[in-house]
Specification:
Layout lengths: L12 H6 L2 H4 L1 H10 L2 H9 L7 H17 L2 H16 L2 E3 L6 E3 L3 H22 L5 H17 L11 H13 L7 H11 L8 H13 L3 H6 L6 H17 L5 H4 L2 H12 L15
Antiparallel strand pairs: 1-2
Helix pairs in contact: 3-7, 3-10, 3-11, 5-6, 7-8, 7-9
Length: 282
């Protein structure tokens, strides 16, 4: 165990947001949005995302991301280096659009990052509801540091949450996004989680919330219709989740790296350090 609390630490908004399992569920929405960008999904296809147990690959990627948030500074850099090394090998020409792609392209990285930040903030608002406007802005600013670790220049990141969301809407309205066969393959992972996926029954419900909270243009691309009954069901589900979440035991409320930190603090008698978050990414 190390006393280095990393770049963020327990007093950060990033810890407050990312520790929640219900915010983790927003990662499904982020992945669906990322997959709708043909140049992003072209790179993911190059890594063999759909072969060799794709659900575990997705889990491993998420855990590397959490290592940047919850790990020590050394662990954050190690996780970022692993991500950057993979990205450095990914480049080519997308057969769908005929456009060149490079996984280190700042604009492609910005789309991936923006989807994660926007989805985390949305699911925090829908399932937790602690953050005000200042808290959302602080989370965005903290995540700029995480973005820089994976080679996104700070100057390309919109400086405020409203500007970030306006940028995302601009990408949507540009016409570049589409539900390619590859994107639909990703969507099918959420419609029908593989048998080996943890919490498989819950993931079916999570996927419905992920599709329901997509921007309307992307829901249409994926062929998802939201009538009044469906909208009511989603609203009731989020309201119930927000009401019941505080009553859940910590092992269901918090993700593994944060639980590790809590247990380490209990062993230390209140002098808490950060458990090695990167160990869970192996």
């Amino acid at each position: 165990m190390t006393q280095d609390a990393g770049y963020f630490g327990p007093d950060s908004v990033s810890w407050q947001v990312h520790r929640e399992v219900t915010v983790l569920f927003g990662g499904a929405r982020a992945v669906l949005m990322q997959a709708a960008h043909p140049l992003v999904i072209a790179g993911a296809r190059e890594t063999g995302f759909y072969e060799r147990n794709p659900w575990k690959r997705l889990q491993r990627t998420l855990m590397l991301t959490y290592a940047i948030t919850f790990g020590s500074k050394a662990e954050a850099h190690a996780a970022a280096d692993r991500i950057n090394e993979v990205h450095a090998r990914i480049k080519g020409v997308d057969p769908v659009t005929g456009l060149a792609y490079d996984a280190l392209d700042p604009q492609l990285l910005l789309w991936v990052h923006s989807c994660l930040v926007d989805s985390a903030l949305l699911f925090e608002a829908l399932t937790v509801g602690r953050l005000d406007g200042a808290g959302r802005q602080r989370f965005h600013e903290e995540q700029m540091l995480a973005a820089e670790l994976v080679r996104i220049p700070r100057e390309v990141i919109p400086p405020t949450v409203p500007e970030l969301r306006a940028h995302m809407q601009g990408v949507i309205e540009s016409g570049i996004l589409r539900a390619t066969d590859s994107a639909r393959s990703v969507a099918e992972l959420f419609h029908q989680p593989p048998r080996e996926a943890e919490w498989r029954p819950i993931l079916r419900g999570v996927s419905r919330l992920a599709f329901a909270t997509l921007p309307p243009e992307l829901r249409e691309m994926y062929g998802i219709s939201m009538g009044p009954a469906a909208r009511t069901t989603v609203a009731v589900t989020f309201a119930a989740t927000r009401l019941l979440r505080p009553l859940l035991p910590p092992r269901y409320r918090y993700i593994a790296p944060y639980q590790d930190w809590r247990r380490a603090g209990a062993r230390d008698g209140g002098h808490r350090g950060t458990k090695r978050a990167s160990a869970t990414a192996e």
